[in-house]
Write a structure and sequence with these properties.
Layout: E1 5-9, H1 14-25, E2 29-34, E3 52-56, H2 62-72, E4 76-79, H3 86-91, H4 93-114, E5 119-125, H5 148-167, E6 171-176, E7 179-180, H6 189-201, E8 208-210, E9 216-217, E10 220-221, H7 222-233, E11 241-243, E12 249-250, H8 251-261, E13 270-272, H9 290-296, H10 304-319
Helix pairs in contact: 1-7, 2-4, 4-5, 6-8, 6-10, 8-10
The chain binds NADP nicotinamide-adenine-dinucleotide phosphate (NAP) and ligand F7E.
NADP nicotinamide-adenine-dinucleotide phosphate is lined by residues 9-10, 12-16, 35, 37, 41, 58-60, 80-84, 99, 123, 125, 176, 178-179, 185.
């Protein structure tokens, strides 16, 4: 039987690289959409380069998306591409809206035009819950977004549901809480901390500047989350799911665990910088993934402590020049 074809937008990002690995293990023919840049940015998928097929297109360019779908004719399409860093969304709100909100409609329009049988996954975000009304948050919790990023994701979420309801597309939205890994971008707080811990431990830095240490998040492991994305597209009916661990920590607890792990007292190295506080903060997020557990049989496998230690170890190895290509 011919292999199923999957197309991933955002394949060069953290989740895209894990999803590509996972789908290859499942026997898929994996295609990835990449945008043109003056230098290639394929670090996270370098170890997969001979097993995935990459195609240039851009979420800003409708025709490029249509042509891409015509060329690949995927059975499953995972939309992971976005401007995903919350602080940048205040500096570039319009661009964030173009990528993260309207980009979803452009892809859905391409699906509708080229092949409405394509199963579509949209990477929605717990940031949509924002200033939360209830704890923990589930699929029915109202959205009170607090950043241009979160507002754009709310649009992406509802346009996905709208195309399901209007045109009968198999379109699903996965509302993921924060998920991290050694491949997380260094601007996000977990990786910023584990990278700094490694540099401080090795004598390459003497402090790290952070913002709000009191913010609380439900942090999981990216490798677990991409499995849930896939499971959502294997169901009989398209539905939306919260993906979360159900365990919450503060940024300060993250810092304590990471510094403790290498035997350092965080208070000597962490400086709180008011410039890193956000214009509107999301103080606390905690997910209820009961529906994913029950209907998808999905469970996270990596605890927060294991995740942070995994990331510190990978950053130490990287600075010692011992990193493996897939770390
Ligand atoms: P990421 O590491 O920032 O990756 C984003 C990807 O989007 C990159 O491959 C990037 O390509 C691509 N991209 C950005 N703009 C594009 C454009 N105009 N055209 C084509 N590609 C473009 O993000 P991630 O952490 O893997 O997250 C994946 C998705 O899940 C994102 O939509 C994010 O908003 C969402 N999400 C993430 C989390 C989380 O905790 N990680 C939680 C909830 C939702 P370049 O390499 O060229 O920059
Ligand atoms: O911030 C606080 C910051 O940037 C987490 C994205 O993947 O998850 C991510 O968004 C918390 C915030 O992630 C620093 O104020 C303190 O409260 O790691 P982050 P995020 O904003 O939660 C969601 C689910 C997504 O969808 C997004 O795409 O940590 N914090 N000090 C800091 N954050 C950063 N970045 N840097 C600091 O120095």
């Amino acid at each position: 039987m011919a292999a199923r074809r999957a197309l991933i937008t955002g394949i060069t990002g953290q989740d895209g690289s894990y999803l590509a690995e996972f789908l290859l293990q499942q026997g898929y023919e994996v295609h990835g959409m990449v945008r043109r840049s003056s230098t290639e940015n394929f670090e996270r998928i370098e170890h997969l380069r001979d097993r995935v097929q990459l195609h240039q297109a851009d979420l800003l360019d409708q025709l490029s998306l249509i042509q891409l779908l015509r060329q690949v004719r995927p059975h499953e399409l995972y939309n992971l591409a976005a401007q995903s860093f919350v602080p940048t969304s205040w500096a570039q709100p319009l661009l964030t809206g173009e990528f993260t909100a309207l980009g979803v409609t452009r892809l859905l329009e391409a699906v509708r035009l080229v092949d409405p049988e394509i199963r579509f996954f949209q990477a929605s975000s717990s940031e949509m819950f924002g200033a939360v009304d209830e704890v923990p948050q589930n699929e029915n919790t109202p959205f009170r977004p607090r950043s241009p990023y979160a507002v754009a994701k709310v649009y992406g979420h509802f346009i996905t549901i709208n195309y399901r309801e209007s045109y009968g597309l198999f379109a699903c939205s996965g509302i993921s809480f924060n998920h991290e890994s050694p491949r997380r971008g260094k601007e996000f707080v977990t990786r910023k901390v584990t990278d700094a811990v490694a540099r401080i431990k090795l004598g390459l830095a003497d402090h790290v500047r952070l913002g709000n240490l009191q913010a609380r998040r439900d942090w999981g492991y990216a490798g677990d989350y991409v499995r849930a994305f896939w499971l959502m597209l294997q169901q009989d009916q398209p539905e939306d799911f919260v993906i979360a661990t159900g365990v919450q920590h503060s940024v300060q607890e993250l810092v304590e665990i990471a510094f403790d792990y290498v035997g350092l007292d965080w208070r000597r190295y962490v400086r709180v910088d008011p410039a890193l506080f956000r214009p509107a903060e999301v103080n606390s997020l905690l997910g209820d993934a009961s529906k994913a557990r029950e209907k998808l049989g999905w469970e996270p496998t990596v605890s927060f402590e294991e995740l942070i230690r995994m990331m510190v170890d990978a950053d130490l190895q990287r600075y010692r020049g011992q990193s493996s290509p897939a770390s």
